[in-house]
Amino acid sequence: MRIPPTEPEIKTLFTGWGGELATCRKFAPTARNYTASKLMSQVGLRVSEACKLDLADIKWELGRFGKLHVRHGKGARGSGPRERMVPLINGADRTLRWFIEDVWGQFDDDHTRPGAPLFPSERKNTDGSSRRVGDDALRNGLATAAEAHLPSWADTLTPHVLRHFCASELYLGGLDLLGIQEVLGHSWIATTMRYIHVQQTRVEDAWVSGQQRAAKRLEGLMG
C-alpha cells in the first residue's frame, strides 16, 4: 500500500521547498519542479500528464476556479489517452498563476506560441523555444526536495504517492468518491477507493462527533 505522508508533513515539505526558492542556484527549474509537485498534491495529476500539458490547456474561463484540459490521461486497459477536465480546486489556481506570472518567462518569452509547454525544460529546440520537461526531472526534483525538507519520510516520495495524498485529502475534505474519481481520471471507482487512506481512528472520531451532535440536539429539545 502506498500510504502517503500526512497533511502536516506535506505542508512541511512545501514550506521548506518554497523557502529554498529564495536562495537556490537554479531558480527556474527548482520552481518548475516545486509547482508540478504541488499541482500533483492538489489535484492528483499523474507525472506523465503534467509533462504533456501545454499553456493553452489552462482554461481560466471555465468553472469557478478555472480548469486544466488533460489531453493525455491514462486510458483503461490500454484503450488510449482519456481526456478529462480537472477543476483547479484546492489552491491549484493560485499555484499556476504564480508559476506563469513569475517563473514561466524565465524559460521562454512567447506565451502565445502554439504548443508551448506548461512545464518547460532548460533545453531548447532548434528555433530557440523551450522543450518539454521529462518525467525524470520532475521525479528527481521531488525526491531531492523530500530528502532535504522531509527527512523523516523514510521511503522515496514519488508523484504517485502525491496522487494518493490528494485523493485522501479530498475525501477527508468532504468530496465524494465520484468527484474524486473525476478529478483523478480513474475509469473505475474501485480504483479510486484504493487511493484513499484515512486515519485509523476515523471511525471512532466519527462516532464521537455523532454522539456530540446528538447530545446538542437533546439539549435543544429539553431547553
Annotation keywords:
about 220 residues; mainly alpha; hpI Integrase, Chain A; 3-stranded antiparallel beta sheet; two-stranded antiparallel ribbon; 5 strands; about 50% helix; globular
Write structural notes for this entry.
The protein contains nine helices and five strands; from the N terminus they run αααβββαββααααα. The longest helix is centred in the last third of the chain and has 21 residues, at 202-222. Helices cover 50% and strands 8% of the residues. Strand 4 and strand 5 form a beta hairpin. Helix 2 (27-43) packs antiparallel against helix 4 (92-102). Residues 200-206 have low confidence and may be disordered. By secondary structure, the protein is mainly α. The strands form two sheets. Strands 1-2-3 form a three-stranded antiparallel β-sheet. It has a single domain (7-222), classed as hpI Integrase, Chain A (Orthogonal Bundle).
Sum this structure up briefly.
This protein is mainly alpha-helical and 223 residues long. The chain is built from nine helices and five strands, in the order H-H-H-E-E-E-H-E-E-H-H-H-H-H. The protein has a single domain (7-222), classed as Orthogonal Bundle (hpI Integrase, Chain A), CATH 1.10.443.10.
